[in-house]
Amino acid sequence: MKNKLTVCCGTTCYLAVGNRIDRLEQLIKQEFGDKVEVVPSGCLGQCSVVNKECDFAPPFVKFNGEIISNATNDNIIKELKKRL
Questions:
Q1: Full residue range of the structural domain in which residue 68 is found
Q2: Which SS3 state, helix, strand or coil, does residue 27 take?
Q3: Which tens digits make up the pLDDT trace of 51-64?
Q4: d(CA 17, CA 59)
Q5: Is the pLDDT of residue 36 over 70?
Q6: Which residues pair with 61 in a beta bridge?
Q7: Which among 36, 20, 2 is positioned nearest to 74, based on CA atoms?
Q8: List of E strands, the chain
Q9: Residue 34 and residue 43: Cα distance in Å, rounded?
Q10: Is the bond preceding residue 59 a cis peptide, omega within 30 degrees?
């Protein structure tokens, strides 16, 4: 089964990083081959989640259903390495 990385392309996340999704796809392919599928998505609704115990900040991605915040390309690669 292929792992799914859903990239939020809602306004806030898009302005933060969404315009670099092509670069992210290249990095994911380089690092993980065909193990991870990158899928753009409408807003994941995480900006409205208020959780004072966590440092949630856009941009957001969802990896196999789990939210990753502050999702820069470097952070995403690092998190995927932990999970794969």
A1: 3-83
A2: helix
A3: 544 556 778 899 99
A4: 6
A5: yes
A6: 7, 68
A7: 20
A8: 3-8, 36-41, 61-63, 66-68
A9: 25
A10: yes
As given in the structure block, the two tokens for residue 25 are 């796809």
Taking the C-alpha atoms of residue 71 and residue 59, their distance in angstroms, rounded to an integer, is 5
CATH code for position 59: 3.40.30.10
- Count of structural domains within the chain: 1
Q: Are 16 and 50 in contact (CB under 8 A)?
A: no
Tokens standing for residue 13: 């996340």
pTM of the full structure: 0.84
Q: Is the pLDDT assigned to residue 2 strictly greater than 90?
A: no
Q: Is the pLDDT of residue 14 over 60?
A: yes
Mean pLDDT for the stretch of residues 27-47? 92
Amino acid at 70: N
Tokens 């004072």 locate to 52
